[in-house]
Predict the 3D structure of the following.
Amino acid sequence: MSAQIIDGKAVSARVRAEVAERVRGLVARGVTPGLTVLLAGEDPASATYVRNKEKAALECGIRGATLRFPADVSAATLAAELDRLNADPEVDGILVQLPLPPGISAEDSRALQRRIAPEKDVDGFLPFNQGLLMIGEPGFVPCTPAGCMRLLAEAGVSPRGKHAVVVGRSNIVGKPMAMLLLAADATVTIAHSRTPDLAAVVRTADIVVAAVGRPGLVRGDWLKPGAVVLDVGINRLPDGKLGGDVAFAEAVSVASAITPVPGGVGPMTIACLLENVCRAAERRLPPA
Ligand code: NDP
């Protein structure tokens, strides 16, 4: 058996086309969605991420803007900028690109992220939005887990009644992923670095989500035959290529469906971010 390869690039292109359509509708009613990213310092990886977000936004008709600050910017300056953006009715979504420069303490960095108005928190990282997800009320859902749910839907996989094992418990991937699967009626286990006999836990899963950051951690013989595998990991391998948290070559002959790395979950994150911006902007529409 060889698994269905879930094509994240194709699904992401579909999501972006849907967003572009929604944006056209918004613009026709006088609302141009706006996304603003705060980028401080010279970190090359951050600069690339921000460029990609801005480009993807512009391609969908969203007004993407990046505000750049030098590495020695103060937390107070960024805070004032966030206050200004929170008050700007034309800015629907705000992102603070991490990591902030080393001159900004971890505490200040956290405070700055939490300064974003909850209705503009299109990353869905604020405790307020994470709390809404936890209690099952609508809010902004973190983009990578949201993308995983869309991939499941596109692959025709319903989580209802399935046992899902999420490996990884970060606030931006593992935990919100588990909440989304729970909301979709899966029975959910969250595993992490202190889980004894991880292989045995993964073997009980109908759906496996690997969000760890350890290349090839999940082996083919850890999988129940027919399991659906979503590989969130993005790891730079010694040969310079990108690889996931799942040993793909082994898993592909055991799973019924699997996301590749690259080209699986990765492309979904920005697409779901654009969806969130669109949703934020739709709140600006006058009542029909
Ligand atoms: P974190 O480092 O924040 O979390 C990693 C999680 O994996 C932790 O909960 C940790 O457990 C767990 N873990 C670490 N080692 C093991 C192990 N040996 N066995 C079991 N669990 C382990 O990472 P993120 O959640 O931010 O990201 C995870 C991966 O996803 C990374 O590769 C990242 O690059 C990728 N990623 C991809 C995105 C995309 O767009 N596709 C977006 C975001 C992330 P513990 O809590 O006990 O330390």
